[in-house]
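Shipment paperwork, digital attachment
Item: protein structure file
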Amino acid sequence: MPELEVDATKFAGMSEEQARSFPRRTVVGEHLTDDQVAAMPKMISTDSHVMEPDEVWQQLSPRLRANMPKDMFRNVPPGAGNPHLRLRDQDADGVAAEVLFPNYGMALFALDDVETQQESFKLYNDWVSDFCSVDPKRLYGVPLVSTYDIKAGIKEMHRGHDLGLKGAMVWQVPHPSLPFGSPHYEPLWAACAEAGQPVICHILTGHSYAKTGFKGGVAGLKDSTNIKTFDTASTLFDIIFSGAFDRHPNLRLLLAESEIGWIPFLLQQWDYYFDRHGRKDPLPIKRKPSEIFAEHVYGTFLEDYAGTRNFSWWGTKNCMWSNDYPHFNMTFPHSRQVVERHLKGLTDDTRQRLTRGNAIELFGIEV
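Attachment content:
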């Protein structure tokens, strides 16, 4: 497979000087002619990001601003913060629409100060709503929802929906005193089910290893692979085995940027032990975890060649493509070539589901 270099000069609005300082990376993709690329249907990314300007957080009072994380990732293309340039980058990459998550705002899920988290989330939700208003059918923001106070969180979720935002982004790793298996979240699950909006857990949010900063070397590699996947798997386990989906048949959950290859293996294991232990010990669920997952849970894939090999038998109704723009892992500007590598050989209907149809159904996207 050819390695395709991410050329920073392809970004809309990026100067040559900016392009020279942008990190170089390559993606592995299929070799396609320009005509083949142009003929491919446009896709919807279910995990993309924006870059919030400093001015958003300056609106906090000095007391609350003192609680904010200090580090910010700044080396991003102009389209990360400018919606007009963002649309141009979408066009260049064959993208019809994106579901947008924060950048700096992800770190705010780890805040211990409740008021700071709540007020900063409100500011972000206002800002991203304005960002998306430039083209509401191509830019779909997600409201940040603080879950320390569930009633206040539900109120903010509904306010976000009134602003045109989709879903409800909560922490992936809860505060230790508020595990997902507790009744604390029950009103939120009910509110999301009633609203027809998915709960969304994105990697590196909440009280995870990212809260204390990223490590280097072997320890950092272990965090970025083993611990990151463990965090997602634990969240999925706790929500499924809490019985939340049985109590709320319309509840949906999206695991964002967690890849997918690990999921069918764990579902197989959970099914086995559900059958084995469920005969002698009462469990909160009455059907196999894999059946619950198939009806209620979604995942996103970026560059998961092991995971996409499963699409011949699993996951085509539960998984969705993402580009992770503007992060270092992104597939821009070669997303169509990368997708061809992952989905080559599948039927046109299956490819459409994975690259846009599932996203349209889950989020109610109008393309």
